[in-house]
Design the sequence.
């Protein structure tokens, strides 16, 4: 994990209404934009942004809704969101089982 002056970096976030909270500890594996058709539709723009973390470094609190589809590459993609306010929270891909992408970080 990443540390500055001996302190481990923690990234925190929540949905728009605060019903789901989450924390990731350490550096993301990658931060990227995805311009696929599904992500463009989700964001209403030309892409989505996400920071991918190891599952073992993420803690989630709250109930998430899920939407699954098959990607252009044949993998199963699961997008998770908070049902009460509709905020997109994270995503997972069946080809990368030990990681998740968080779509909204506040700290």
Sequence:
């Amino acid at each position: 994990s990443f540390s500055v002056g001996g302190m481990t970096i923690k990234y925190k976030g929540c949905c728009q209404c605060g019903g789901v909270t989450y924390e990731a500890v350490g550096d993301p594996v990658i931060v990227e934009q995805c311009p696929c058709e599904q992500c463009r539709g989700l964001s209403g723009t030309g892409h989505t942004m996400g920071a991918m973390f190891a599952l073992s470094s993420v803690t989630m609190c709250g109930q998430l809704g899920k939407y699954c589809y098959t990607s252009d590459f044949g993998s199963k993609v699961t997008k998770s969101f908070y049902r009460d306010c509709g905020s997109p929270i994270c995503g997972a891909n069946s080809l990368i089982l030990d990681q998740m992408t968080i779509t909204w970080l506040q700290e």
